[in-house]
Amino acid sequence: MQARLSMLCLIALAHSGSIAAPPEPASVETMIESLRNTDFAERQRALDTLAAHRASSEKYAPALRERLRDGDQTARQHAARALAALGVSEKAVIDELLAGMGRRSPATYLSQPEQARTSMAALVMLESLAVPALIEAMEDEQYAGRDLALEALGQIGPSAKEALPAIERLLATEDLPALCRAVEVKWRIDGDAAFAIEQMVPLLDQQRGRDCHAAVLTLVQMGAEAKEAMPALIAALKRHNDHNVLWAIGELAPHAEELALPALREALTQPGMEDDVAIALQNLGEPAEQLIPRQLERLRACKAEDANEPMRIVYTIVIHGPAATAYLDDLIALLQHENPEVRRAAAWGLPRVFAEDKPVIAALQEALTDPETAEEAAKSLKMLQAERQ
Asked: Which of 8, 109, 145, 296 fits 102 for a cystine, CB–CB 3.0-4.6 Å?
C-alpha cells in the first residue's frame, strides 16, 4: 500500500538560503562535452551553466572560435552554441546557429529535430543581439527554420520589439495554425492580450481553429492573460462538445474559477465528454464524493455495445488516490458485472485504490475463476505481490 501511495504523491522539499552558481567548466573540452549529450534537456542545462559564466567568456572564446572553423559540422555547432551561451554574438556564431536551426529531418515529428531546437535556444540566449538575423530568417521563404525563428523571437519577448512589423505582416495568412503562432508571438513581445483574444475567439467556431495547434493552444499559452476568453471558451464547449476546448478550459480554470468550475460541472452531463471532464475537475481539486459516484453509475450502466470505455472510467476513479478507498466495495461488486469489459476494468483498478490488501486480494483471487477477467486479475495480483516484497 505504501508503494502505491508513493506512485501518486509528490514530495515538496522546501529550500532556504542562496543557491550556489554552477561550477565553471575546467576546459573547452569539458564545455563541448556537456553539449554533446543526446538529451535535449541536458543540453539546455549545459547552455544555462555556460550562460552563468559570461564574465569568463574571453577565457574560452579564442579556442571556441577556432572550433567554429572546424570542417566538422557537429563541432561547429557545439562551438557556436557555447559561444552564444557565453554572450558572444559575432556574425559567424549567429550564422552557424541559423544553419543548425534550419536543418530538418523528414523522419522527425513536425520536421523539428531536437538539435535544431538547441540551436534556437542558443540564439534566444543572445536576446536582442540575435533579433535582426531572426527577422531575416523568418521572412526568408526558402529557409527551413522559419517557424523556429518566429518562436525564438517570441521567447526573446519585449527585447524583440523591432520584429513586430514583420510579425504583423504574418497576420494576413489564411493558414490558421500559422496565424495563431504569429498572434502568440506578437503577444509575447508587446503584451497586447486584448488583441490576441480578439483574434482567437472567433476561431473557436471553426474546427481548424479548435485543433490542437491553433486558437486553443494560443489561449492556453497566454495563461492568466487569457482569462477574458473564458466565456467564449465555455460557449464553444457547449456548442461543439470539443475536447480541445475542454482542455483549454481546464488549463485556464485556475485564472477564472468562478466561471470555469460551474461550466465543467455542467459538462459532466455532455455525452462523450464525461471522462475528460471528470479528470479536469479532479485536477482542479473537485472532491471525490462529487465525482466518483457519478462515474460508478456510468460503469454499472455500461453495455458491451455502447461507446463508453470502462477502463477509462475506472481510471477517473483511481486518480483520486486515497479518497477512492471508500468506493472499494463498489469496485469489487463490479467484478460480477455482466459486461466483461467492466469486470476487467474493475480488476485493473482494485490494486490502485489505496485499500487494504486483504479484501482486494480475496476479490481478485475469486476473479481468477472468470475466464474473461482472469488475465487482468492475475496482473493485478502480481502487482500487489511485487509491492509487498
From this structure: 145
As a whole number, the mean pLDDT across the chain is 88
**pLDDT value at 311 more than 70:** yes
Residue 80: which of 49, 131, 121 has the closest Cα?
A: 121
What separation, in Å, do the N-terminal and C-terminal C-alpha atoms of the chain show? 11
How many residues are present in the chain? 389
Inform me whether the pLDDT recorded for 10 exceeds 50. Answer: no
Helical axes 146-156 vs 176-190, angle rounded to 10°: 30
How far is the CA of 297 from the CAs of 288, 291, 292, 310, 367, in angstroms? 14, 10, 9, 11, 21
Instruction: Let me know: does 59 contact 79? Beta carbons within 8 Å.
Output: no
Model's pTM, two decimal places?
A: 0.81
Distances (CA, A) of 77 to 54, 171, 212, 315, 352: 19, 33, 32, 45, 48
Amino acid at 35: L
Cell numbers for 320, please give them: 483520486
Q: Give the span between the Cα atoms of 124 and 101, in whole angstroms.
A: 12
